[in-house]
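Chapter review: from sequence to fold.
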Amino acid sequence: MQRKLAVLAALVLVSAGCSRRREPSPEYARASDAFNKLYAQRLDDAFLDPKMREIEALLQRVPDDSIDAPAASELLGRIREGRARMLKLQEDTQAASASARTPSTVSLTPRETGPAPAPSPAAAAPDAGPSEAVQPTAGMSMVEFNRRFADCFQIAGPVTVEGAGQRDSYELVDSSRCRAAHPTFTNALVIADGQSLMGVVSKSALIQPPPPPDGGGAAPAADAG
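The token string follows.
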């Protein structure tokens, strides 16, 4: 009789354990939805947004026995890692901006130069291929410019170059990564002629065209009387 009671008790416990299911967490659902919307709007800059603190608070309230607990822990770790990375990038950007010099206006008029002196054998590096420029420079082809820098430069519109007419211009994309990679271009424009880069000019050096005269049309003809 005692053995039967023990078996029945064990069956009841097993049945009760099977009936208990891990439930999803409404806190995780709200946090995940808020994170996705904020990141879609601001990308990596979202990690420094004050709203991210509210999302962290929701994730920390997800119960440990919830089915969403592993996902909540993973998202919480991603947020903290992203914040640390963006703070480091922000510090590097500020340091680079403080040491960077304001880009000077580049003359787009070609100058005659003599032949470059041959490098001395001691200075020449053996088997060293041509090094790539780390910034856009005058004479660089548009193919190379787009291949290497298209992710950080966007079309700013046509500008008029004295003696050359209207040409395309490109400005730096306003993002932390691009400002850190090209700190001297934050207030500059890259001028191009469709085939290659012509030079770099400071935005403050651009001359705005004068406004059209009032009326804009031809003067009325005098009354012949």
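Two observations follow directly from the output. The chain is about 40% helix and 10% strand. Residues 142-205 form one domain.
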